[in-house]
Specification:
Elements (H helix, E strand, L loop, with lengths): L21 E2 L14 E6 L4 E6 L12 H11 L7 E3 L24 E3 H9 L4 H11 L4 H14 L24 H12 L2 H7 L3 E4 L16 E4 L16 E9 L3 E9 L5 E9 L11 H16 E5 L8 E6 L6 E6 L4 E5 L6 E6 L3 E3 L7 E9 L2 E10 L7 H14 L1 H40 L37 H5 L6
Parallel strand pairs: 1-3, 12-16
Antiparallel strand pairs: 2-3, 2-10, 4-5, 6-7, 8-9, 9-10, 11-14, 12-13, 13-18, 15-17, 17-18
């Protein structure tokens, strides 16, 4: 009989993108730092959190608020290109029109298609576009829209998020805040929309004309370009990375520099990340926000040192189990049912533990591909994936072994033992009862005999009837006797009293 054997490929596994990602949380190399106060990066291919820092700390989030505004627009307006949204005049008030507030120069009162509003919110981070979309989706009531934002955040599993505006110009002390983890959940939901992926990877977009007006929401008689604030998409910038595919910037003095990112390398490995609270002061040389440099450090480190690769070879057995009722084989080799993916350091595979869940044995017949057990993979004690283990071959049943096993099994079974015990108890009880009844019957008969016999009487004989000593004795009968019978009454009738007339 073969002993239990397994070929260990130590890996970190998850089957699909998870709403509650698995934590690997690798640490940056010693001496490598980022200025961001909070960060959360997840590999979408496996659902693994590869890096986090203060991920559950509520913070001001600036224009990353617009991620939720964009999500609600995409979810509630099926025809973005064919739906017109009016740039409501009443929303053109501070802080939307405040100094330094970003905009797309959309004229008050003009009508702009919803798709252009989406580009305006995601590229130049237009506050007037976000406020107009909120007014439209809130049925002309901004508070209605804020309620929609908070309800949708709760549905996505956000636990430390509150929205009090659609653009992000209000800070935490005014009720607008979130966390890196919660913003990832919102970004992940946005990323599911193809139009979102297209928009955030665009560097420039031509806005339709906005009519006549004064600066900064001025007159445009021809379509005019709006450009992304994401410097990592611009090939001429110091922080350009070909793997960056979006998504959204945000900054206020209270929030610091914030960045929601999407990164996809040449192998198709996809990451979404959130960094919050990067240093407010720009880089002294390039003048670019420190949030871009923070993300360049994080993604360069990940792509250079980690990779997504298969974790378990479906063609290699990882366990075996005993087989019953078969003369063909006494063990069955088990194979992984699926080839999972993992994120691991390129120079190390010794991070994963395997926990098998297998029966002691399996009965024949068995068909190839039948599920027999599972193997659970853990990283740092946390479950990261479970894989079915299936039979690697067909195994037929031997009828003689099957029948003899069941017969012997019956005599070893608890049922048989219980029957034997119950029968023995019954027989002992029956025997004891019979002995008791027999003794009582004997005692009853003895009492009856004593009652009918009475005290013994002494017989006397009259003197006249006594034979004279001189009387002749009777002659002895010498006739030979051949046989004789003694007939005694039975015991009961002898002692029974005579019947009365």
């Amino acid at each position: 009989m073969k002993k239990f054997a397994a070929l260990f490929f130590v890996v970190l596994v998850c089957v699909c993108v998870c709403s509650a990602p698995i934590h690997a949380a690798y640490e940056l190399p010693q001496g490598t730092e980022i200025s961001a106060q909070a960060a959360y990066i997840v590999n979408l291919d496996t659902g693994i959190v590869v890096y986090e820092k203060n991920a559950d700390e509520p913070r001001s989030i600036a224009s990353l608020t617009k991620l939720m505004t964009c999500l609600l627009l995409m979810e509630n307006v099926p025809d973005l290109a064919g739906t017109q949204i009016e740039a409501e005049r009443s929303v053109y008030v501070p802080p939307v029109t405040g100094g330094g507030a970003s905009h797309a120069d959309i004229l008050q009162g003009s009508s702009v298609d919803a798709l252009s509003m989406l580009y305006a919110m995601l590229l130049p981070s237009a506050n007037e576009a976000a406020a107009s979309v909120a007014y439209y989706l809130g049925n002309k009531n901004l508070n209605n829209f804020y309620a929609l934002m908070n309800a949708r955040a709760a549905e996505l599993g956000c636990t430390n998020t509150s929205f009090s505006c659609a653009h992000g110009l209000l800070d935490m002390d005014e009720g607008n805040y979130s966390t890196a983890r919660d913003l990832f959940l919102i970004l992940q939901e946005c990323w599911k929309h193809e139009i979102f992926r297209t928009v955030v990877s665009t560097a420039s977009y031509d806005m339709p004309t906005g009519g006549q007006g004064g600066a900064p929401f001025g007159r445009h008689t021809q379509p005019y370009p709006i450009r992304t604030t994401n410097a990592m998409l611009r090939p001429t910038s110091d922080v350009y990375r070909s793997y960056i595919k979006g998504c959204k910037t945000g900054s206020t003095e209270a929030a610091g520099r914030c960045f929601a990112s999407a990164a996809v390398n040449e192998k198709g490995e996809t990451y979404l990340g959130i960094t919050l609270g990067s240093t407010w002061e720009p880089d002294a040389v390039s003048g670019l926000a420190r949030s871009f440099y923070d993300n360049a450090v994080l993604y360069d480190w990940l792509f250079q040192n980690y990779s997504v690769r298969p974790s378990i070879d479906t063609g290699v057995p990882v366990a075996e189990v005993k087989v019953r009722f078969s003369a063909q084989t006494d063990t069955l080799m088990l194979y992984p049912a699926s080839d999972l993916k993992t994120v691991l350091p390129n120079n190390s595979e010794e991070l994963l533990q395997k926990k098998f869940s297998l029966p002691e044995s399996v009965p024949a017949p068995i068909q190839k591909g039948d599920k027999v057990g599972t193997v659970t993979l853990l990283l740092n004690g946390e479950t990261v994936g479970t894989v079915d283990l299936v039979a690697g071959q067909d195994v037929s049943r031997n009828l003689f072994l099957f029948v003899s096993s069941h017969i012997s099994g019956f005599f070893r079974s608890l049922y048989f033992r219980v029957v034997c015990v119950v029968t023995a108890v019954f027989l002992l009880g029956y025997g004891a009862l019979a002995v008791t009844l027999h003794r009582k019957e004997q005692q009853r008969r003895a009492r009856r005999r004593r009652a009918h016999s009475g005290p013994p009487r002494q017989r006397t004989q009259h003197p006249a009837s006594r034979p004279s000593p001189h009387a002749a004795r009777p002659q002895k009968d010498n006739t030979p006797r051949t046989s004789f019978e003694l007939n005694f009454p039975d015991e009961d009738s002898f002692f029974d009293p005579p019947e009365r007339p």
